[in-house]
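Protein: PIWL2 protein
Species: Sclerurus mexicanus
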Amino acid sequence: MVMLVPELTFLTGLSSLQKSSWTVKEVMWEMVQSPRQHYTRLTGLLRRIRDTPEASQELERWGLHLDMDIHRTQGHILPAERINLRYRSFFPDEELSWHREATKEVPISVIPINSWLLVYPKRLQQLAKDLVAAVRSTCGAMGMKVGLPMMQELWDDRIESYVKSIRSGLGSQEKVQLLLCIIPRNRDDLYGAIKKLCCVQAPVPSQVINAQSLMGHPGKIRSVVQKVLLQINCKLGGQLWGVDIPL
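Structure follows.
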């Protein structure tokens, strides 16, 4: 049993009101930093404590002493792994990212998408058309073949409307490979209802996209579509990349 003292605890994470794109970017910038940046900031903090009389006196009162340098120890640097795509192998950059290569090269195996259903509310009609256009123009470079979807437009964004439309769309086609839903904003209840329907009641691979992530400059929707296509290929049984695992 873990017993927490209320006065010494505090909530973590962000509330729904704070989850604006700018707030999330700021938090991620603080969290995702290189070892060199962490070292610089920690040594800067140590200097500030040393140069602040109140902080130094408080440490002395407790009988504590902070070394001005971070403890050093020997470490082992593992060699970089080679990433294998279908026609090319490469080593990732220092940031261990290979998104650029993955979206401009052909994956190890791809699943053609001939029958898919796109569900969206009426007020996002133009966004849905832009999404289909971006999918069609982007998939070729990634070695994927994506046909035109069957599009179902909703009068509103109520949960019942999505569920009824999805049931109708899945029932009207012999074999739907993929369901793609555009929702107007980040809603856990709507997302949960769609996933429950597609995972339990009428099993079909599904992808839910928040409309806000597609809005902005044209390059943004292309970037989102590239990531979504990679996810979809995996959900349909495709393989994006691999590494060498010797015997």
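Remarks: The CA atoms of residues 122 and 171 lie 21 Å apart.
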